[in-house]
Automatic annotation (TrEMBL):
One of its GO terms (molecular function) is peptide chain release factor N(5)-glutamine methyltransferase activity. This is Peptide chain release factor N(5)-glutamine methyltransferase. Gene3D superfamilies: DNA helicase RuvA subunit, C-terminal domain, Vaccinia Virus protein VP39. SUPFAM superfamilies: S-adenosyl-L-methionine-dependent methyltransferases. One of its GO terms (biological process) is methylation. The gene is prmC. Its EC number is 2.1.1.297. It holds the Pfam family PrmC_N. It is an enzyme of class 2 (transferase). Residues 142-290 form the Methyltransferase domain. Keywords: Methyltransferase, S-adenosyl-L-methionine, Transferase. The keyword Cell cycle does not apply. It comes from the Bacteria.
């Protein structure tokens, strides 16, 4: 009889997980996988979580047999994953931009495609730093400030702050649990002195005044980032179970903008806010759906922005709006 060793688990349970999640179907928000190696990697993550050991230990101790308690915990986690629950929620962590973030079901799980917002914010920061002595720069680089709306885990803001030494920032989220989680991530990354997080609904009528007066103290900011809700109601109904069944609907679904464009209600609120709080020459970076690029560029053109363009993700899908405050 085969022992319940690390080698056995990786070999047999990866096959079972791969077959199960492949059978569930896929879409752009799918929590499944394309290769058996992806399934094996997830099983390694589950074992690392259960045994509190890194992958190096697992690879060098393949004959280690799990205790009865460890086996029970692993099988519980494995069943949750087989049923479609995202791995990140099971282990409570997700890597983003090379950093480790705590996650729970109060927030969206950070996704690699969102990293393009971080890339662009970092490029903008260093461009400003290189040109800080020119007449075009209107605020000191030592006070380069970012506001991140719908911050969730804080992954966008905190990744930028880790890469940009003289930047500071503010994260806003409607969910107080998400705000608390973002604060914990800031502490874990040693960034608690460079940022602050607040609970607020940025679509509220009085939000812009409160942000300007109580949080920013009338100062204009350099960069506004957001991965807001942007899925239309009708698309939510066909999302993968791993998303619809576990990730918060309020962080996914958005209504129609005033222009009648489906899924861009939150985006329009952000554009209006960016018009008020960004300095002249400041940058707005706004994630959107793969088919919303043209509509959002057109919407953005009715506000005080120029150099409006669409950024593309790793799969070459339209993924984010880039625009400069005029």
């Amino acid at each position: 009889m085969e022992t319940f060793s690390i080698h056995f688990i990786i070999s047999e349970y990866a096959k079972e997980l791969f077959a199960c999640l492949q059978a569930k179907g896929k879409n752009s928000f799918d929590c499944g996988m394309e290769r058996l190696a992806d399934a094996a990697n997830e099983v390694y993550h589950l074992l690392s979580f259960v045994l509190e050991k890194d992958k190096v230990f697992l690879l060098s101790h393949k004959e280690y047999e799990l205790t009865a308690s460890e086996r029970e915990t692993f099988l519980t986690c494995f069943e949750r994953r087989k049923n479609g629950e995202p791995l990140a929620y099971i282990v409570g962590r997700k890597e983003f931009y090379g950093y480790d973030f705590l996650v729970d079901n109060s927030t969206l799980i950070p996704r690699p495609d969102t990293e393009i917002l971080v890339d662009e914010a970092i490029k903008f920061y260093y461009f400003q730093k290189d040109n800080e002595n020119t007449s075009e720069k209107t605020c000191a680089i030592s006070n380069f400030q970012i506001v991140d709306l719908g911050t969730g885990t804080g992954c966008i803001l905190l990744s930028v702050l880790k890469e940009c030494g003289n930047a500071c920032g503010v994260g806003i989220d409607i969910n107080p649990k998400a705000v608390e989680l973002a604060r914990k991530n800031a502490e874990n990354l040693g960034l608690q002195e460079k940022c602050a997080f607040f609970t607020a609904d940025f679509t509220d009528t009085n939000f812009s005044e409160k942000l300007e007066l109580e949080i920013l103290h009338t100062a204009k900011i350099d960069c506004l980032t957001s991965n807001p809700p942007y899925i239309p109601d009708y698309e939510y109904e066909i999302l993968d179970k791993g998303v619809k069944g576990y990730e918060p609907k309020t962080a996914l679904v958005s209504g129609n903008s005033l222009a009648g464009i489906q899924g861009l209600y939150h985006a329009e609120k952000i554009l209006a806010l960016g018009e008020k709080i960004l300095r002249k020459g400041g940058l707005i970076l706004l994630e959107h759906g793969y088919d919303q690029g043209r509509a959002l560029r057109e919407l953005c053109s009715s506000y005080a922005f120029f150099e409006i363009k669409t950024l593309y993700d790793f799969g070459n899908n339209a993924r984010a709006l880039y625009a400069i405050k005029s």
